[in-house]
Design goal:
- By secondary structure, the protein is mostly helical.
- The protein has ten helices and no strands.
- It is elongated, with a radius of gyration of 18 Å.
Length: 243
Amino acid sequence: MPFAPVLHSEWLKIRTLRSLVAGLAAVVLVTAVFSALAGLDASSDDDGDFDALFSAFFGVSFGQIAVITFGAQAVSSEFQGGALRVSLAAVPRRGRWFAAKAVAIGVPALAVGLLTGCVSLVVGKAVLGDRGSGLSWGEGLRGVAGCGVYLALMALFAAGLTALLRSGVATLSILVPFLLIVSFVIGGVSGTVADFLPDKAGQVILHETWDGALGPWTGLAVTAVWAAVALVAGGWRVCRRDA
């Protein structure tokens, strides 16, 4: 079967599963709410290290939980009720099927990520008031684009890890505590191996200024490497393991 109809079928699966659509909607909502809360707190804060851009996009740290849940669920649904056997019966070339699945996850995640970036920037600047007026159009555009690409990469990272582990629960059990606990604990440590963790590297693009070994786009490149490795490992597991 050619790639285009395989991609179309995978897109239909995502579009018709309410939990996945709700997960994408939650990305926008959760990110906007936490960005607004962070902006309200920052607007009355006299901290000399204030970063207006990151304050506007602070909610991404929580919205990414929704997007990795989307990526994990989109793949884990194939391991329930024999769905994978049906998919592979229709598309015997497993690599082609998994590539279509990854595209069907990455494209809507990117679109929702860009929308999330726009909403976060508007909400963040509105809440920050005068403190957000110093943000340039270039910084805002970088933040919006970076938000979209970063969230798409995290969705793909979760999708690849789920294919490798063959379990959405296992993936979320690893990633959610890591992002909410480990990452926050080491979030202020720069110039170490922590700079190369997938979330910390990718979120450099959401800062006005940055320390450490990575810049905005090199940080996203590191996150892309993490996502690529996870997808390759997940694809290998799909091709080698019985459905």
